[in-house]
Design a protein that fits this description.
mainly alpha; Four Helix Bundle (Hemerythrin (Met), subunit A); 6 helices; 77% helix; globular
């Protein structure tokens, strides 16, 4: 296992600590929100670092191609779910359920589409798009601002949702094109 993949595994392993700090959070234990924020920011930074290392040191692997987006989805989906619960109990700015559902729905479509492509033995590689990267960026920024209890969160989650929907439609369109492309026989 190369160094980039070890960083990705670290990001996956950070999720239970992130969730634990949110589960035990309440206003009298505000330090847990700060710990969750620190863990999340560390996970976001590790995402950038593992991608940079994989590209710059030629450490791209099949495992990394699967684990990296999976780590992002695990981190973001759990963050949205738990922040929905916590923000509606304790924060002034409350994350709406529809935001959480759109994030989950898009990622469920991506994961199931990727699984179908793998099962169909398609030769085409699944790769992230700019729309997907922008969507992930705004989702991450939304989580950070929610943990900061910022009133700007409202604007950020609306921006994140726009890019999430656009990237979901883009991935769906590319998946349909991929399935309608004839296979090349060897």
């Amino acid at each position: 296992m190369n160094f980039a993949n070890k960083i990705t595994i670290f990001r996956i392993l950070s999720v239970p600590f992130f969730i634990t700090s949110l589960v035990y959070y309440n206003p009298s234990r505000d330090y847990l929100r700060v710990i969750a924020l620190a863990i999340f920011i560390l996970a976001v930074i590790s995402d950038a670092i593992d991608g940079y290392i994989a590209r710059s040191r030629n450490q791209k692997t099949q495992a990394g191609a699967i684990l990296d987006p999976l780590a992002d989805k695990i981190l973001l989906i759990t963050a949205f779910i738990f922040l929905y619960i916590i923000s509606n109990q304790y924060f002034d700015t409350k994350l709406p359920l529809w935001v959480v559902l759109i994030v989950i729905f898009r990622d469920a479509i991506l994961l199931s589409g990727g699984g179908i492509i793998i099962l169909a033995n398609q030769e085409n590689k699944i790769s992230p798009t700019w729309w997907g990267k922008i969507s992930t960026f705004f989702q991450m920024i939304t989580i950070i601002f929610l943990l900061l209890k910022s009133h700007l969160s409202f604007y950020l989650w609306n921006t994140a949702i726009i890019f999430t929907v656009v990237s979901g439609v883009d991935y769906l369109r590319k998946g349909i094109v991929m399935f309608n492309t004839p296979l090349h026989r060897k």
